[in-house]
Amino acid sequence: MSDKKPKNVFREGPISSDFIGNSIYKHQSKTSIGAHNIFLGQVRADDIDGKTVSAIEYTAYEDMANQKFHEIRESAFDKFDLTCMHIYHSLGSVKAGEICLFVFVSSPRRKVVFEALEYIVEAIKADVPVFGKEIFEDETHQWKVNS
């Protein structure tokens, strides 16, 4: 693992399609890349006990979470032949249908990006201290349990 300083992966509110599209666009000049893979986590309008989720309010232990994201990133670079990797996660309110997690990996070969992306997303869900409070249409709330 490198001695790089952990990057702040957090963005306030939802991650926009413009931001995602611009991230992809910026990689056109990197001609050693043969494949990209993207994971977009979207807030679902789950029905829980007869109430519908209208948004999730994300909070995190930011320093600890950024350190965990960094460790996952470095581990993925050690494990897979990746050219680039970007991770962004929302803080604050994200409405149902909006994007809250954006993971983007690039490699010279396609098989690598599929394996790497699954590894990264599963590690994020298991290890990163990000918390979501589900806000229901009636404005009640509860802490989200990852599934």
UniProtKB/TrEMBL annotation:
Pathway: Cofactor biosynthesis; molybdopterin biosynthesis. GO terms for molecular function: molybdopterin synthase activity. Signal peptide: none annotated. Transmembrane segments: none annotated. Its EC number is 2.8.1.12. It catalyses: 2 [molybdopterin-synthase sulfur-carrier protein]-C-terminal-Gly-aminoethanethioate + cyclic pyranopterin phosphate + H2O = molybdopterin + 2 [molybdopterin-synthase sulfur-carrier protein]-C-terminal Gly-Gly + 2 H(+). This is Molybdopterin synthase catalytic subunit. It comes from Seonamhaeicola maritimus.
